[in-house]
Each structure stands twice: as structure tokens, then as C-alpha cells.
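Hello Y.,

Per our agreement to keep a running log of every chain we model this quarter, I'm adding this entry. I've kept the format consistent with earlier entries: sequence first, then predicted structure.
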Amino acid sequence: MTAGTQYPAGDIGALADVIFAFLRGAARLSGKDWGISIYGAVDRADAFGLLTRAWDMGATRFHFWDNYQLAAVSFSEYLTLARHLQNHAANHPQRDLEKLKQAAEVAITLPPGYDLGHTQMGLGNLWGIAELNLERRNDSGITYREVMSSFHLEAERYQSQGIPFDALWELPGLPPRGYREVVHIREDGRVLVEAGGQQQLLSEARRIAPKPGDAPQLSVDDIRGVVAGTAIQVTAVAHVRETAAPVYYTHGTDDKGIYQNAMVLWELYGPNEEDYRALSPGGMKPVVRRNGAEAEIEAAFRLDRPGRYRLRVATVDTVGRRQVLWKTLELSPGPVLKVLP
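Predicted structure for the entry above:
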């Protein structure tokens, strides 16, 4: 939904390979070891596979968060996961760590400062801050979204071909070494590919073929506001119809530790360039009214500063087919809300 990729939400490897590529790449470049941490909001069913996948890829450090609300892994869960990893390690003891560290054939580099934040992977939002929202533009006039989309599209392409890759920053004095191909994601929106001593400058990232089947249907026809003092309380309603595969998106666990299918990601940009809000529902419990393959999803938010806002509404099915809509809202003193065409 964020980068225009078709990562399947139901495959934890799609998420793990991107994160582990960054960790393994850093370890290879620096000659260090790497590892992962599990925290409480990680889906319990996924945690087992993430640990063993990291072991199989050469991780040597494994951590469990032990404090702060839903970030904490309970002691009983800690023991269960640790024993699971211990059993897996006992059954797969022969690891050539140096060979595993060098497993990637391709390196994909990012400009310094860009990271994996704001990446919606079907299992919640990785870390990010409002001031670095994806609609901001860099010095080349390219949005952060376009730069990160290029990275993820290239990563998805190699992933779909079964080609192991690392992810690295384009750091001065630390060029990638030992890769048969290096893909440089540039801030001007282009992609530079180096292979066999040759360079090829592409105008954009390479995409895999679209998945067969129709994407979910998405519409937003009902946006209304109620005056609340000098602000407007806005309610927006989206309609989603599932087609070839189920629709799934979650903000993460609710206050009971349960994953709720929100179906839609709501994001609000503006009124200033640095302003951004991921419109998460209270208690992480979305308002979703389902009727078979159709659903009505409601979001509520407050506008208290005059100016123009852009509402981004996105949905995706479990295969990775997405739909994205934009709505422009204008708040005038009064306050008066207009939904612009």
C-alpha cells in the first residue's frame, strides 16, 4: 500500500528478508555479527518463524523485549520461543557463518538517511516520524515515497527470483564489495545498476509482473464534519469489496493483544509539509462493518488548523494487490470544511 509492491501479507519471509537484508548487509560490510529481537506486539505465530529464519540466515544474537506494555514478551512466551530456537539450533548445528554472511549476490543501496520506516507491510507500521513523512520532497524534488518505492520494488524483484540480496547505505569510503551486482537507489528517482564492470542508468525501478486477478475495490464517498468549537470533527467512510483474495491490514494488537483486521489504512497529510498522521483507531479497534465480501470502514479524526489536507486511503489483499485513493479537504476559519474534487 505504501510502495506499490506486491509483497504478500501472509508470508512472513517477505517482511523478514527485507529487514534481515539490512542487518546482514551491515554485518558483512563491517565484519561484525548480527541478530534480531522479538517484542510483544510481534504476532505470536510469526515469532517462531522469524527466529528460525534468522538462525538459518546466520544470525547469532537473539533478544526479547521485557518491558513497556505490549512491547514486553511475557516470561512464559520468552521460554517457549527460546526453547523453540534451541531445538531448531540443535537440529541445524552446522552453520558456516562466514559463508552465510556472504550469501547475498546483490546489494541494494539507499542514500544516507533513508531507512525502512513508514513501511506498511500488512502487519503494522515500522518506525517513522511525522516530519519525515513519505510525501515530503528531497533536494531533487522527489518524494521520499518515490525513493523508498524504488528500493522496495528492486527488493521485491530479487525476492521473486529467489536471489539473495543485502541492503546498505551509500556511505562515503565504504563501497559494497564482493557482490556480482550493485543497485544504487538515487535521490533523483533513478536507479543505477552496476554489474560486470558495466553501468546502466534506469529512469525508474524495475517491477515484477502484476499478480493475476482483480485488486480489491475501494471507494470513499462519505466525508462529513461536525463543528466542535474552533475545530471540525470529521468522519470518513470507505467501502471495500474483496475480489480475488481476502483484504487484510492491521495496525497491530489492540489493548487485549488481539490483531484486528482494519482492512484500510488511513493517513492524513497537511496542512503543512511536515504534518502527518497515521489515523489509528482508539484502542487499535477499527470500526469495520462487514457484509460478506463487502465492508464499510469508518475513520474519525479532528482538524483544528485552517489549511489544506490530503487524506490517503489504501487497502490491499493478502496477495499484495492494492488500491489507493486521495481526498483533499480544506478547513477555513469559521470553521468550515470543504471536500474538494
